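Handout for the seminar on molecular recognition.
Each group receives one record of this type.
Step one: identify the two inputs.
Step two: read the structure output and locate the region that could contact zinc ion.
Step three: write two sentences on what you found, then compare them with the reference statements printed after the record.
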Amino acid sequence: MSSESAQCPDNTADMAEKDSRSRKETRRYCNFCLIVSDGDPEAEILKKNDELVCFKDICPAAPHHYLVVPREHLESCNTLHKGHIGLVKRMAELGREVLREQGVTDMTDVRLGFHKPPYTSVHHLHLHVLAPSSQIHKSMLYKFIPGSVRFITVSYLIKNLEDYRNHTCTL
Ligand SMILES: [Zn+2]
Ligand SMILES: [Zn+2]
């Protein structure tokens, strides 16, 4: 049991609803809170700092597929507001840094983005970092289509956060 294993099957909407009923329950069973506190020996952590942790997605959809999560438990991109723009940018920066460290040279062929509720299996904000984006496995491609109902890229999320000034982002 670790990280995003629950995301592989496509039955996450029901779980999302169940979990969101009780914030406490979600927090108690949050896999990513466990990972950021070094409590999951199976997690392959690639980089961390005081604010963020980056680790391998357990169900990779591309040759490089990493997740960047804040240590703070934030539920999803829908709970973010304008004050989180800096955080989102730093998450993306760390993701790109890890890609470079892992040998990715073509930074134009990468995909960075977030799943939108209810298509989030782990209710702890996490940035998907994929490369090369042209090699995302066909069977999983639908999960990472920019502008779809499931997925929003970093640049679109930032634009949304800028637009929804002082309001909760309603994507
Ligand atoms: Zn968490
Ligand atoms: Zn996800």
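Reference statements: The chain has one domain: 45-164. Residues 52 and 70 are 4 Å apart (CA to CA).
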